[in-house]
């Protein structure tokens, strides 16, 4: 938010007074900081890369602008421009568009009234070179820019038309925010996708037309589409929409609304000036509530389920955390829907379903789930195979078949020597069956792995008493 403020301030100073630029930039940066749509990129730990990539991207554009508009420290600004670009690309791939942002800054901010002739010639040359490179290296480019083969580039592109409008709408009206969006190739009728893209084209044309009088609006809209171009165009990605993808594009929308906010401030009318502060108050409350939801697994996934009651990934995560909290009945009910009613045979879901039903000691159901999973065990990752083998050993142990269970625990040890749970259950089986010599041998291994674990200490005491 600080770097966003600095970029806004420096650019706005080109068009309005310094004091007005500072006030407008501060107001917009605060809105960006507290905006509930940005929560996912900040609170969702795995998406901290998005926040970091946005930081380097905005810093690179800021440094480029300083390089082009100041006479001092030009070499330093140039180095910061390139260094920030390099760091951004190493953080997240979608920042490869930063050079296009440099050009947008140059064309729409630094020299908005310059003739287009040289630019059009340059853009034509770049387009020809890009087309030639794409033709020669297309197989490699195609492989590098395809995350999933289940969706064609055209199908993904068509779906992104309405999704981009949803992103823009949620910036201005941040309602119904959540993590998982179940959009796919059949989510929008063809006519809606076509109309959506025609409307986008209309926005772009209107922005170009507004360049002479409102270059900030032109620049903001250009920023929005440029920064969305990697994840919301023709590169098929398995997940069609995520809120964190708006984090960097939202900076462009700040520039687009900057003229409106600067006029509100310049008006000095209390009734108008109070509007942004009311908006900030509402955004702050909503962001605080979203963080409150994200702080607790059940609050978070209950909210997700309210929007995506049939999303199997949301259902699986809800059930997984129910197992962690020992709410086995709730978890088993969800897995019954996924496995029995919807026929999902994903290894993670099957193994988690086994754990949930084992918590209920429904060993008959556990065996049925095991049989489903073992039918495809050779296709599983070694860690999933080990978890499945461990689950079978636990079922056999709990149903009084310690000798058979021991063999499955031994298989886990072969794959992952020193794995704690299989060592623990092997020792418990040996203590139960009176195989003291083997129990002591396994206990020694357990002590090396987890000497202070309460169950290990208890087993040691039992063997000492024997």
What does this structure look like?
74% of the residues lie in helices and 0% in strands. It contains 23 helices and no strands. The protein has helices at residues 2-12, 18-34, 39-43, 48-69, 74-91, 98-110, 117-136, 138-144, 153-172, 190-209, 215-228, 249-267, 270-294, 297-307, 312-324, 328-341, 347-359, 363-374, 382-398, 402-415, 420-433, 436-449, 454-465. The termini are far apart.
In short:
The protein contains 23 helices and no strands. With 466 residues, the chain is mainly alpha-helical.
Helix content: over 70%
SSE string, helices as H and strands as E = HHHHHHHHHHHHHHHHHHHHHHH
Mean pLDDT: 91
N- and C-termini, Cα separation: 66 Å
Low-confidence stretches: none
Percentage of β-strand residues: under 5%
Number of helices: 23
Q: How many whole angstroms does the radius of gyration measure?
A: 29 Å
Structural class: mainly alpha
The major sheet is characterized as: none
DSSP, total strands: 0
Shape: elongated
Summary keywords:
0% strand, 466 residues
SSE diagram, text form:
Elements: H1 2-12, H2 18-34, H3 39-43, H4 48-69, H5 74-91, H6 98-110, H7 117-136, H8 138-144, H9 153-172, H10 190-209, H11 215-228, H12 249-267, H13 270-294, H14 297-307, H15 312-324, H16 328-341, H17 347-359, H18 363-374, H19 382-398, H20 402-415, H21 420-433, H22 436-449, H23 454-465
Helix pairs in contact: 1-2, 1-4, 2-12, 2-13, 4-5, 4-6, 6-11, 9-10, 10-11, 11-12, 14-15, 15-16, 15-17, 16-17, 17-18, 17-19, 18-19, 19-20, 19-21, 20-21, 21-22, 21-23, 22-23
């Amino acid at each position: 938010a600080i770097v966003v403020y600095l970029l806004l301030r420096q650019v706005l100073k080109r068009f309005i007074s310094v004091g007005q630029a500072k006030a407008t930039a501060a107001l917009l940066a605060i809105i960006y900081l507290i905006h509930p749509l940005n929560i996912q990129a900040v609170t969702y730990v795995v998406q901290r890369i998005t926040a970091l990539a946005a930081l380097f991207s905005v810093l690179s554009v800021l440094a480029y602008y300083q390089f082009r508009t100041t006479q001092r420290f030009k070499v330093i600004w140039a180095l910061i421009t390139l260094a920030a670009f390099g760091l951004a690309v190493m953080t997240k791939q979608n920042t490869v568009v930063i050079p296009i942002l440099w050009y947008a800054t140059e064309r729409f901010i630094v020299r908005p009234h310059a003739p287009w002739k040289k630019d059009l010639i340059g853009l034509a040359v770049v387009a020809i070179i890009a087309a030639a490179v794409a033709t020669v290296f297309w197989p490699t480019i195609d492989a590098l820019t395809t995350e999933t083969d289940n969706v064609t580039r055209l199908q993904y592109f068509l779906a992104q038309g309405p999704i981009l409008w949803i992103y823009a709408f949620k910036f201005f009206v941040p309602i119904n925010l959540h993590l998982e969006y179940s959009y796919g190739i059949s989510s929008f009728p063809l006519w809606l996708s076509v109309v959506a893209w025609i409307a986008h084209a209309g926005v772009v044309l209107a922005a170009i037309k507004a360049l002479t009088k409102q270059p900030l609006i032109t620049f903001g809209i250009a920023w929005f589409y440029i920064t969305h171009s990697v994840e919301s165009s023709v590169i098929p990605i398995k997940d069609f929409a995520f809120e964190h993808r708006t984090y960097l594009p939202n900076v462009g929308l700040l520039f687009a609304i900057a003229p409106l906010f600067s006029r509100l401030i310049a008006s000095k009318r209390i009734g108008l000036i109070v509007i942004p502060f009311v908006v900030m108050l509402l955004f702050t409350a909503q962001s605080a509530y979203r963080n409150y939801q994200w702080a607790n697994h059940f609050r978070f996934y209950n909210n997700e389920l309210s929007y995506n009651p049939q999303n199997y990934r949301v259902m699986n995560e809800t059930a997984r955390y129910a197992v962690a909290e020992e709410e086995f009945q709730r978890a088993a009910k969800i897995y019954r829907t996924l496995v029995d009613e919807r026929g999902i045979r994903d290894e993670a879901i099957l193994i988690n379903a086994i754990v949930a039903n084992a918590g209920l000691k429904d060993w008959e159901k556990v065996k049925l789930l095991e049989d489903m999973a073992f039918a495809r065990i050779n296709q599983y990752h070694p860690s999933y195979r080990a978890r499945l083998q461990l689950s079978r050993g636990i079922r056999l142990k709990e149903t009084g078949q310690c000798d058979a269970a021991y063999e499955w625990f031994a298989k886990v040890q072969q794959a992952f020597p020193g794995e704690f749970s299989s060592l623990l259950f092997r020792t418990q089986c040996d203590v139960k069956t009176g195989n003291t010599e083997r129990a002591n041998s396994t206990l020694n291994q357990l002590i090396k792995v987890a000497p202070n674990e309460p169950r290990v200490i208890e087993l040691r005491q039992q063997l000492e008493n024997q």
